[in-house]
Automatic annotation (TrEMBL):
<keyword id="KW-0378">Hydrolase</keyword>
<feature type="binding site">
    <location>
        <position position="247"/>
    </location>
    <ligand>
        <name>substrate</name>
    </ligand>
</feature>
<feature type="binding site">
    <location>
        <position position="68"/>
    </location>
    <ligand>
        <name>substrate</name>
    </ligand>
</feature>
<dbReference type="GO" id="GO:0006537">
    <property type="term" value="P:glutamate biosynthetic process"/>
</dbReference>
<dbReference type="GO" id="GO:0004359">
    <property type="term" value="F:glutaminase activity"/>
</dbReference>
<feature type="binding site">
    <location>
        <position position="118"/>
    </location>
    <ligand>
        <name>substrate</name>
    </ligand>
</feature>
<dbReference type="Pfam" id="PF04960">
    <property type="entry name" value="Glutaminase"/>
</dbReference>
<comment type="similarity">
    <text>Belongs to the glutaminase family.</text>
</comment>
<dbReference type="InterPro" id="IPR012338">
    <property type="entry name" value="Beta-lactam/transpept-like"/>
</dbReference>
<feature type="binding site">
    <location>
        <position position="171"/>
    </location>
    <ligand>
        <name>substrate</name>
    </ligand>
</feature>
<keyword id="KW-0007">Acetylation</keyword>
<comment type="subunit">
    <text>Homotetramer.</text>
</comment>
<dbReference type="GO" id="GO:0006543">
    <property type="term" value="P:L-glutamine catabolic process"/>
</dbReference>
<dbReference type="InterPro" id="IPR015868">
    <property type="entry name" value="Glutaminase"/>
</dbReference>
<feature type="binding site">
    <location>
        <position position="195"/>
    </location>
    <ligand>
        <name>substrate</name>
    </ligand>
</feature>
<feature type="binding site">
    <location>
        <position position="265"/>
    </location>
    <ligand>
        <name>substrate</name>
    </ligand>
</feature>
<feature type="binding site">
    <location>
        <position position="164"/>
    </location>
    <ligand>
        <name>substrate</name>
    </ligand>
</feature>
Amino acid sequence: MTFTVEDLQTILDEITLAVTALPAEGEVACYIPQLAEVDPDQFGIAVALADGQIFHAGDAQTLFSIQSISKVFTTTIALRKFGDDIWKRVGREPSGDPFNSIVQLEMECGKPRNPFINAGAITIADTIMEGRTPDELMEEILQFIREIAHDDSIQIDKKVAESELKTGDRNASLAHFMASFGLFENAVDDVLWAYFNHCSITMTCEQLAKAALFLVSDGLDKSCGVNVVSEKRARRINSLMMMCGHYDGSGEFAFRVGLPGKSGVGGGIMAVVPGKASIAVWSPRLDKVGNSYLGTLALEMLTQRTGWSVFGH
Ligand code: GLN
């Protein structure tokens, strides 16, 4: 593969031109009414190299709802606080079911299969709440993301959080069902409110690519020499993203893109090329399992052009 960093801007520009010229396919997430108001035909992509250089194209500086991508950050916080104890409460197997599925919870006595499906992320929110209010927990989550992205402007879109609360019957039923096994340490409504809020954080592709850089460099934030997590944990977070980051589309994503990645129903995808780069891509139209249609396609094109893959070199 003859790819040099000098080519990267051209590659991103060409991918942006190619995918935005395609006939529109997929739908925006309508089950959260506020997300349905987003212009569906936007597209942005940003690449942060391990040395901190950033390249971007399209709508890479437009804020969008990171949704389930936030689950990578809350899982990282949980690992920092409780280490391997978190695996007593969530598993680390792909679910093979939709992100909001309830079916496996009954067979597994309320223990979600992984931290990236809704039930798993709600459990992680309960784990890291530690008796505090949702606002206090949100302050901690926001602070963490601002630190790793080196950007204090990152905020929550409260309209999206309210919209999720109003239409959140499925998530409420998942939470109450898990709580019925006596597994929750905090009030279910508080945990849900924290969960809806962290899903409603808004970021740009550029901010998101920067925030993922610690996963590129074995847990180290190279810009300041701080270890966000240990090398072992960074690798494990990447493995979770690889196996579970796209719900029941995780196999397809690994097959087509070949990188650890985490998607959200806002249309974002954050992907990691260990040792080399982090990538954030965003386009609101989703495929039938809830992953960005053009985002996946763009990542597939980018990995073909660069040779980036965890399955070869
Ligand atoms: N907040 C969304 C939900 O709870 C997150 C889902 C997603 O991004 N896949 O349904």
